């Protein structure tokens, strides 16, 4: 339970003060009787901290300090909230193990957390993400000398399958577009296919982001890595977008919205996409909205675009991430393979491809001789 002194300490962290040390009552209040903060200001961090102090877990003050450190680093509020969710799940397990403070956390608690998340049926990538969030928290507490350093003395990682990005087949792409007659929805799907934008980036588009004459979209801050970039679209996407811009409500802030609402949610976009997959009779293939981004990338690679150029268009921070698409359906690699295999099947191998014992011996002698720098003579 939080006593009077603890509540006062919390108020010093959460509540702003003026030069005289008095609290701004308009922004925040503390109800000491209820022993929890009553926050009148609905700022993002305040709401996250409010969730934290509702939890019955040890180490809340240390968790708050970590969340504030993330906020000062200008991390997204969604990232901070995800951190809180993972940390709370971890600390709940620590508490169930009979531990009452963070100083008692051990390496075994991290292992137990991994097993717990795996037992919930989460995918390996999701478990790894949650583990990374918890490890970042633990690392911070180690630096503050709260948690023993041996907890992270050795690396603790989760092997995640390196699967190929799932792109839509050309025939399926045609089937999908053939059933989309709705003006807004057709513009959305075509923009995703032609630009490679993430669905969140598309839903956040505003009028001044689109340069229709140049067939260009300015993404000022990418949804995932916060890196701005420029993407382009072709004629069919431009035509669909023009029609939608003529019909949409100009008073709306976002380009795409749902009915009388000002926005369109990801859930709404996903439901729309799934209905069209069913209508096109390709729902069984497991396509998602993100597959449209993969389709754009693989199509551009097959058309001969360079990896570096594709990296910039997709907004990847590293070309190694983009290189994953080079493992996808690549017509150039496919043609080279079947051309080489055709030679093998016809027995047309020549040059160094065909093993010749006598020639191999001569080459090895020349290699040894070149290292000694002496002239090679035939023995009588």
Write the layout of secondary structure elements.
Layout: H1 4-14, E1 28-31, E2 36-39, H2 44-54, H3 60-72, H4 77-96, H5 107-119, H6 124-143, H7 170-178, H8 183-195, H9 199-203, E3 210-211, E4 216-219, E5 229-232, H10 235-247, H11 266-279, H12 289-302, H13 307-314, H14 319-322, H15 331-346, H16 357-372
Antiparallel strand pairs: 1-2, 3-4, 4-5
Helix pairs in contact: 2-3, 2-4, 3-4, 4-5, 4-6, 5-6, 8-10, 8-12
Structure description:
The chain is mainly alpha-helical and 380 residues long. It has 3 domains: 1-35, no CATH class; 42-152, Orthogonal Bundle (DNA polymerase, domain 1); 170-331, hpI Integrase, Chain A. The protein is 53% helix and 5% strand. The chain has 16 helices and 5 strands. The protein has helices at 4-14, 44-54, 60-72, 77-96, 107-119, 124-143, 170-178, 183-195, 199-203, 235-247, 266-279, 289-302, 307-314, 319-322, 331-346, 357-372; strands at residues 28-31, 36-39, 210-211, 216-219, 229-232. The chain has a 3-stranded antiparallel β-sheet with strand order 3-4-5. A hairpin with a 4-residue loop joins strand 1 (28-31) and strand 2. Helix 4 (77-96) crosses helix 6 (124-143). The N and C termini lie far apart (101 Å). Residues 1-41 and 374-380 have low confidence and may be disordered.
